[in-house]
Amino acid sequence: MPRILGVDPGITRLGVGVVDNPHGSSLSMIAVDVLRTPPEWDITERLLHLQRGVAQLLDLHKPDVLALERVFAQHNVRTVMGTAQVSGIVIALAAERGIPVSHRTPSEVKAAVTGYGGAKKAQVQTMVKNILSLDEIPKPADAADALALAITEAWRGRVPGVQGRGASASPVSSTQTPAQRAWREALGQRTNLG
Predict the structure, then answer these.
(1) Is 145 noted as a catalytic residue in this protein?
(2) pLDDT (tens digit per residue) in 66-103
(3) Number of H helices, E strands in the chain
(4) d(CA 131, CA 16)
(5) Binding residues for Mg(2+)
(6) Which of 59, 72, 128, 171 is the most interior residue, by most CB within 10 Å?
(7) Residue 165 and residue 97: Cα distance in Å, rounded?
(8) Domains located in the chain, CATH noted
(9) Angle of helix 106-114 relative to helix 178-193, nearest 10 degrees?
(10) How far is Cα 13 from Cα 139, in angstroms, rounded to an integer?
């Protein structure tokens, strides 16, 4: 049963979400959390705290793959630097344990989870809740984002034992996530009605 750890990197809040992806069945959430560091801490203290927290999670949950949000340019260089530093720690910890790391862009995650790459954050959070059959949307947003990364990896990634689930599907539909297929089917039904 492939296990995926999604990580939404950040120096103040680092979201983590673990999902299991049993072959041929729906995803299930195993854990979700947000590791936090106070802004008044020195950068070395903050990075060490996050390193220890991520290491504990990797050793506890033993994921088959880690899905990490790709660092992208923002207007705030300080935020980008902190995110990049945290990402480097996460990648090193995974490599140390032989866990492959997959990098996902925010638009790629939105497209996988909602069927639309320009979806709003609230739409992604609602879909995470629905996909994982949760009673409520995980809070704060970093927690839902981490689960969305894990879902994306489950549906689009190279998780061991998952490939080939859509073997009978057409080449186009086998590269689409369930959310994208549902969206295209709904669009097709509306077109046929017109």
Answers:
(1) no
(2) 999 987 666 667 778 889 999 999 999 999 999 999 99
(3) 7, 5
(4) 17
(5) 8, 69, 142
(6) 128
(7) 27
(8) 3-193 (3.30.420.10)
(9) 60
(10) 12
Amino acid found at 83 = T
Catalytic residue among 64, 142, 145, 153: 142
Known active-site residue 59: no
Contact 49, 132 (CB under 8 A): no
What's the predicted TM-score (pTM) here? Answer: 0.81
Taking the C-alpha atoms of residue 87 and residue 96, their distance in angstroms, rounded to an integer, is 14
Q: Give yes or no: 33 in active site.
A: no
> What is the helix (H) or strand (E) element at residue 44, kind and residue range?
helix 43-61
CB contact at 8 A, 131 and 149: no
Closest of 153, 140, 143, 67 to residue 113, by C-alpha: 153
pLDDT digits (tens, 9 = 90+) for 41-59: 999 999 999 999 999 999 9
Three-class SS of residue 152? helix
